[in-house]
Specification:
4-stranded antiparallel sheet; Nucleotidyltransferase, domain 5; disordered C terminus; 11 strands; single chain; alpha+beta
Length: about 350
Amino acid sequence: MDNSTFMDDFAAGAENDDPVTSLYYELVNLMKQILLTMAKWATNSEHLKEVWRTEGVEFKEVTQTLGIGGDTKSDKFLMDPRDVIGEYVEGPTTKRQVLRATARFYDPLGLLAPISVVGKLFQDTWCRGLAWDEILPFDLGALWNTWVTAMPPLAQLRVPRWLGTVDSSRLKVHVICDASERAYGAALYFRSCMVDRNVVRLACSKNRLASVKVTLPRLELLAALVGARLLHYFCQRTFIDITEATLWSDLTVVLRWIRQDLNRWKTFVCNRVTEIQSYTTPSQWRHCPGKDKPADLLSRGVTAEQLKIMDVWWYGPSWLAQPPRQWPPNTPSRRFPSRREWVHQSNAVC
């Protein structure tokens, strides 16, 4: 139970009704021993709900767990844009108001990361030397107003909580990394191998704004580092074998950095490749084609209305649900540079 307790919340689950019901009674007895009672209950188990109705225990159909809204009847996450919209002030906007509103965009799983990256204008305000209460320039103000006014469709967004996992031995994890001059990040997907088909679901993602002084190849390397860290943390919390995971990057230079002897590279590359190799092995990294790449949304961003219907984000690229023989080749079609070309290119971008 230690791994399921977060501050004053307890969140746990099981594969079927009987273990969940047993867990409920075990938790109640434990709380009685320390003279505490649980204040609210919620579950998607209809059997446990009947037990609660019989015992007169109050429970909620729509509630929040660790700050994330959910509908237990449909077993889906709910998105509420009112926190952000509530900080929106019509008319001229200042840097202070931008920071106040974006800080309230709570998305710990990164399910809405392609939306939040569009509204992260705080870096732009600093680069232009704006004061805290100075009105945004016309271009930034227009972008900000467009982003905020496009938030309401999030209220209709429903994200399935269940990722299609039944047998952990038939579960594979895939991490797709990408970067642009705006941001970089990685998206983590579950690939559940069922009898008649394979099911791919987005589990979580992580992105960050790009530094203005870092070259694009280095940003792609930082995206790979974010992907390795995300995978390491996820596998620690879910007890999934990290060595069975597959990571994807579309830049051959990054794959070269990861697969080659790290002592060949300069300090920036060497330090980050060292950490990547501490979490993963070079054989786990594969080349991902640039088109239909969901992580591209992490770095460039989309509107809330667009994200709702983007299957590539929620279910990954179409080829990921196919057998491995139909995946993109591990070696990209374009040739790797010769050693002389490679040394010259590495010195130029490192």
